[in-house]
# Entry
Amino acid sequence: MKSELKRKRWLLWLVGIPIVGITGIFVGWHYLKKDIQSPNSKLEKLIEKQAEKQVEKVVKKASDSLYDLRYAGMDVNLDQGYAVITNLQMTPNEAIVKKLLAEQKLPNNIVQLKADKIILKNIGLKKVEGEMAMHVGNMTVTNPTVTINNKLRPYNDTTTENKPLFSQITGKIFTSVDFDALVDMRVDNMLMKNTTLVYINSNGVKPRTTRLKNLDFIMTNISTDALANKGRKNTQPAVASIAHHRIVTADKLYYVDFRNIRIIPDEKKVYIGSFELIPTLSKTAFSKAVKAGQANYRYHLKSTGISMNNIDLEKLSRKQQFHIPEVEIDYSWAEYYTNYNWPLRTPPNRRDKYPHELLQKLAFDVTINKMRLKNGDNYFRIVTQRGQEAVFSMNNVKSVYTNITNNAAAKKANPYTIIESNFKPMNTGNMHSVYKLNLADKNGSYTLSSTLSPMDGTVFNPLMEPLALVQLKSLNIQKMQMYLQADEYKAKGNIDFYYKDYKIKMLKQSDDSTLKNRSFVSFVSNLVLPNDNPKKNGKFRKGAINIVRDPRESFFGFQWRAMLDGVSSSMTGINEEKDKPKNIVTKMAKLFYGPEKGQEHKSTGGDKKRLKEKEDNGKEKKN
# Structure
């Protein structure tokens, strides 16, 4: 039971545990001494030196002398309740690394830790719920860098000594010092300023590195009851909780907020009350902050009631692989906002950017067997160059994701992620869609099948009127079926669009910015455009899809253009040439896809050449 508790302690501090553990031993050593009377006494200075030696001794013992611990200075004032450690460094001893490797005792993870300064304020022993706890009011860590290099070593699969990363650093720290007087540790506020996190996965042919820089971590009301379970009977499962955890992104445009985090190792569960990506700037200020050539969407996301269940602690402990059989999300809300007056993105900078491609680049080894979204709402808001806002919504979204992974063995067994969703477009009707994402394909290929149930098409007017200056007077959608095969370079497929009573009103913007009817053009358009599909004679127009992707297009932007390409063909019976709109439907597609005047996205000659080369190579391989 004792070794099991140590094995599970990895989950108690997701961020900052090496720092918390090491600073805790500094301060804890002082508090365990009962005979200090004055902060200026010679005895205290002597004890301080002994504490420093003890810390170094504990770190070496905990890691089989693998790590050297250095710091420029330490100042602890018990009466005033503060401690300061400067220039803390924990680095691997290269000679010991080689020795342990030869002896097949080197752990899977090698870690380096640096921090310019660690300041703890309002330190003391405090009764919490009738038990003594070590209490820290405020903890500030300046410029910390944590680097983790992971390489799985076969001999560690058969030894009980291979503990998870943080247990290697902290497990023996808490057992090498008499902490029986402390049953809990509480930190009111913890700030890690200008943090750099580097994770290197050295298990493939080439190392994969995930580097996060210039981050600010803000955590409040951190507590752990793990030590309280030591030697107790009838105890509750070990729990670590964080009331609020905020990360400021490197570009300072977003806050990443986590609230009410509860980590329960004995139940193999992590619960997050809410996750939110919050823009730091208003929409007006955000547009001014966007750099030329880097036009972006402004994202605002929030998910609540996130449960990660049945986490495989054994894989995480021995191989540092995050294997989560089940994730459930109660509700998710998202707003995607863009303004066509912002500067365009400079090509080419969207290669290898599809969601399943980005997952493969992640250094962390992640597998989620199934993730279920119980309910959600998505809103796309687009400001046209005329200053009007177009809105498209996906409401009551229910989705199931299966086999989300970048693990080599998992991909070999099943190289596809499947996403099955149902939602109400514009809160009307129902759209059923199934994505099949190829995790092994270097071009990010995927297929999409979707079916739209009967609905009133006029609900799309909030999208069409501002973007295309078209109002749907009537459109009885009976059914729409789409099949799409796509990758980073092209999309091909077909849309079968069944509808009746299609009538439109062409609009123009007046001097007072209102939209007015263009009566004659509307009359001619309704005469020319087919009102039904199939026609009264039974002839059905299929909607072919065949487009080339601009390297600046996003994953969903490319799909939207593919869908409109198929819809336009279906409604006119003409297969549109790429980037040459001949009817109002394709015009609307172009407007939704990008700014409407003189800034159409065009596929580059290099892209077309590469696409042709790929197709020719494919034919040669078949032959």
Notes: The chain has a mean pLDDT of 76. Residues 393-595 form one domain. The two ends are 63 Å apart (CA to CA). The longest strand covers residues 109-128.
